[in-house]
Amino acid sequence: MSQHCDDLMTFLNESSSPFHAVSALAARLQKAGFTQIKQLDDVVLSPGSGYFVTANDSSIIAFRAGHGQPTDGLRIIGAHTDSPNLSVKPNPVKKRSGVVQLAVDVYGGALLNPWFDRDLSLAGRVSFVDQSGQLASRLIDFRRPIAIIPSLAIHLDRDANKNRSINPQTDILPILAGLSEDDATDFDLSALLSDQISSEYEDCSDVRVLDFELSLYDCQDASLVGLDNSFLASARLDNLLSCHAGLQALLAASDAHWSLLVCNDHEEVGSASSVGAQGPMLTDVLEFIAGSAAASRKLRDQSTLLSVDNAHAVHPNFSDRHDESHGPILNRGPVVKINRNQRYATSGEGSALMRLLAERTGVPLQHFVVRTDLGCGSTIGPITAAETGIRTIDLGLPTLAMHSIRELAGCADVEYLDRLLTAFYNRVA
Ligand code: ZN
Q: Which residues contact 233 (CB under 8 A, 6 or more apart)?
């Protein structure tokens, strides 16, 4: 297995929530010598150096200052840090039928069936008052199976294999603990979270928890699958795979030019948030890099954004769900995504650039167009293009089981994507 694929699997396992994904990206950037910017105005950029800025702990922009003028244009790679999941409601505790359960919301377009009968854990950000009376937040991750959503047995639903539908309000509450018969177990979620914070942070004992953003995730680590280990199975491949590939490319990029990576939260719920692709984060950083609003306009005119997000591979059992001439296959290369109705931002010129880049890099390229009689998904590409005016291309790795709790991609494609993205930054085409 290549070092990139190895580190990708470690990254996927570490990144149990968007907060943890940004933390894992920041750690890798810091290790590579990138400097974190807290306030954009406080820093003088030096050519050849790397910088990064985070927002809400869940979105991140990293860039390498080139030796040329930034107004000559940036090569930008975009991806998103969030994935569909089950998110814990603010007052979640239910005690019934001898167990403690947590009420959950569905975040994004989750495929719900695969969440049953999995060993689940809990991760996210908790906000509290510390011992000196200050408001603070920390990331927590239980990193062990503490919850499960059991299926209803087939004996109690004889039609389960024909038409079982899922009511998200009533059917998917996970079980967290047993209750004693006299209901003496006084389960206290705040105390549980406070204990978890103390166990993860030495300087945070006995805090008073005020609120949290926590989501469930599958404890099963990423793994190589198939007789020849040619497939990669993991949670959150959409779109942490692309965040990781963008990071690897940025770290490998030449400092002759300016290169930037933006990984936004909230793509799965439409990107309209202060830290989503529709928010001001990228525009603010570009204006800071350019030095003025007028120079930023020129910079954006000269820049190109590659929006990297997974693409639907042809499922062998359901191959009729694809247009027969535009069906990507696992391990046959990255996919340029095209939709003439602008659900994807790729123009003919952008697609041509990718063809040339792939040709010069020796990477096979595939193309996806949704069936004309099916609706088309979308991603950060068209939103970022509309917000910034930057020429944008939508591309991604072929993936099966998208938005399942466990998705499937091809290992060879991971290598292809790394090569293609590095070549994009280095302006091989
Ligand atoms: Zn995605």
A: 222, 223, 224, 225, 406, 407, 408
Please name which of 225, 332, 266 lies closest in space to residue 1, comparing C-alpha atoms: 225
Closest CA to 198 of 134, 131, 135: 131
CA of 397 to the centre of ligand 1 (A): 10
Residues 191, 247: one domain? no
CB-CB contact of 142 with 219 (8 Å): no
Same domain, 116 and 192: yes
pLDDT of 217 reads 98
- Ligand 1 mean position to 243 CA, how many Å? 10
Q: Are 424 and 416 in contact (CB under 8 A)?
A: no
240 alpha carbon to ligand 1 midpoint, in Å? 9
pLDDT digits (tens, 9 = 90+) for 185-228: 678 999 999 999 999 999 999 899 999 999 999 999 999 999 99
* 402, 263: one domain: yes
Q: Does residue 270 sit in the same domain as residue 384?
A: yes
Same domain, 55 and 121: no
In this prediction, residue 388 carries a pLDDT of: 92
Centre a 10 Å sphere on the Cβ of residue 271 and count the other Cβ atoms it contains.
23
The Cβ of residue 116 has, within 10 Å, a number of other Cβ atoms equal to 16
Domain residues for 140? 85-218
Distance 293 CA to ligand 1 centre (A): 31
| CA 241 / ligand 1 centre spacing (Å) | 10
Q: If you measure from the C-alpha of residue 313 to the centroid of ligand 1, how many angstroms do you get, rounded to a whole number?
A: 14
Count of structural domains, the chain: 2
This prediction's pTM = 0.96
Q: pLDDT tens across 33-88, in order?
A: 999 999 988 899 999 999 999 999 999 999 999 999 998 899 999 999 999 999 99
Query: What confidence category does residue 4 fall into, taking pLDDT thresholds of 50, 70 and 90?
Result: confident
Span from the CA of 378 to the centroid of ligand 1 (angstroms): 8
What distance in angstroms lies between residue 189's CA and the mean position of ligand 1's atoms? 32
Q: How far does residue 94's CA lie from ligand 1's centre (Å)? A: 32
Confidence label for 319 from pLDDT (cuts 50, 70 and 90): very high
Interval between CA 178 and ligand 1 midpoint (Å): 36
> Do residues 372 and 297 share a domain?
yes
What spacing in Å lies between the alpha carbon of 213 and ligand 1's midpoint? Answer: 20
What tens digit of pLDDT does each residue of 125-159 get? 999 999 899 999 999 999 999 999 999 999 999 99
